[in-house]
Amino acid sequence: MEPPPHILVVDDDREIRDLLSKFLERQSCRVSAARDAREARRLWPLGRYHLVVLDLMLPGESGLEFARWLRTQSDVPIVMLTAMSEETDRIVGLELGADDYVAKPFNPRELLARIRAVLRRANGEGNASQEPPAKAIRFAGWTLEPARRRLLNQDGVEVPLTGGEYELLMVLVERPNRVLTRDMLMDLLRGRQAGPFDRAIDVAVSRLRRKLEDDGRNPSLIKTVRGGGYVLAATVEKAAELPASLAHAGGATP
């Protein structure tokens, strides 16, 4: 039996911390709670966390600053808690690598659903296709290994991806040369419609372009379709096995 997911809750509101801790523990989660970034930094090396629930409005070091630090330490999934009026901070948080967000005030069950969805994506579960994933997917000189959830560059060196970046890339390589609207991408990635001011998809595409060394001002790989959405402009090939020369190149781990 797998151990319960260990979740770090970071929020300066004691009532919210206690509510979430008790609620998530009743849902078979293990919870550690911190009232600010300083306490969260102290707790971080003491546990192996599967996900972080992070309030952006923290006293002292902000949630955004803590998220920036956290991304230097780990690719652990992050679900942000934001106020309805914090659209700019929400966008910045997504740019830093957060995987999802919930606006305050929120229903604990909605947060639980988001947490479970993010954990499923991080564990590679919940794919609609029942076919076993290809060992390697090649496009424009890049190699994506679904079984290991990793991206290799032309030299066989791994390029780290967050859970959200990996999921977006998988959606694109599974539908090459097909225009995907923002609403379609949001549905495929999160199972919900994008709000009229929700730039989460644009932020995620921008981050992924940087990882793929695709010029954001004049992208040639993930192209923007005016009034439409995005398209992966590349030939995609799926292979059963990686060539030995690539599998062992550039420090790629076995």
From TrEMBL:
Extract one GO BP annotation from the record. regulation of DNA-templated transcription
- GO terms for MF: phosphorelay response regulator activity; transcription cis-regulatory region binding
One GO cellular-component annotation of the UniProt record comes to:
cytosol
PROSITE patterns the UniProt entry points to: OMPR_PHOB, RESPONSE_REGULATORY
Which keywords accompany this UniProt record? Cytoplasm, DNA-binding, Phosphoprotein, Transcription, Transcription regulation, Two-component regulatory system
Q: Which residues carry this modification: 4-aspartylphosphate?
A: 55
At the top level, the lineage of the source is Bacteria
Where does the record place the Response regulatory domain?
Answer: 6-119
User: Where does it mainly reside?
Assistant: cytoplasm
Xref: InterPro entries? CheY-like_superfamily (IPR011006), OmpR/PhoB-type_DNA-bd (IPR001867), Sig_transdc_resp-reg_C-effctor (IPR016032), Sig_transdc_resp-reg_receiver (IPR001789), WalR-like (IPR039420), WH-like_DNA-bd_sf (IPR036388)
In this chain the OmpR/PhoB-type domain maps to 134-234
Gene3D superfamilies the record matches: 3.40.50.2300, 6.10.250.690, Winged helix-like DNA-binding domain superfamily/Winged helix DNA-binding domain
Extract the DNA-binding region annotation as residue ranges: 134-234
Cell compartments where the protein resides: Cytoplasm
Its recorded name reads Regulatory protein VirG
Q: What is the lineage of its organism?
A: Bacteria, Pseudomonadati, Pseudomonadota, Alphaproteobacteria, Acetobacterales
